Amino acid sequence: MESIREEKEFNVLGYKIKFTPEEAETNISAQDVVSYVQKITEEIRQKSPQLDIGQVATLAALKIANEKISIERDFENNISKLHMTACDALQFIEEVSPSTI
Question: How far apart are the C-alpha atoms of 30 and 43, rounded to whole Å?
Fold first, then answer.
């Protein structure tokens, strides 16, 4: 069955943006995404009010991309550590278990 996705309109940095949420795939609402972007852009504007909207948007995009890459690397490192720990545990179990041969 096809889901009907409603296009929503938001105001970001003074621009009306039409955004179709991908809520079914991520369980994150369009409003959550827009609110996060607005929070980041407001933080940048407060720290550097002399920047124009394009500069604010670019800095926000770079900050969000940095966060995304950092989270992905942390996830990959954690998966790698988990895999090594599981392999070590399996090896230990095999060493201390009586042989079935």
Answer: 20
**Of all residues in the chain, what percent carry a pLDDT higher than 90?**
63
Q: Which amino acid is at 90?
A: L
Rg (the chain; Cα; Å): 23
Dump strand ranges (E) for 1-101: 8-12, 15-19
Residues found in the chain? 101
Q: Is the pLDDT of residue 30 over 70?
A: yes
Q: In the prediction, which pLDDT does 8 show?
A: 85
For helices 30-47 and 53-96, what crossing angle results, to 10°?
120
Scan for tokens 């955004």, then name that residue: 19
Q: HSE of 62 in the Cβ direction (CA atoms, 13 Å)? A: 7
CB 43 within 8 A of CB 22: no
> What's the number of CA atoms in the CB half-sphere (13 Å) around residue 63?
15
Q: What is the pLDDT of residues 50-92, one digit of tens each?
A: 999 999 999 999 999 999 999 999 999 999 999 999 999 999 8
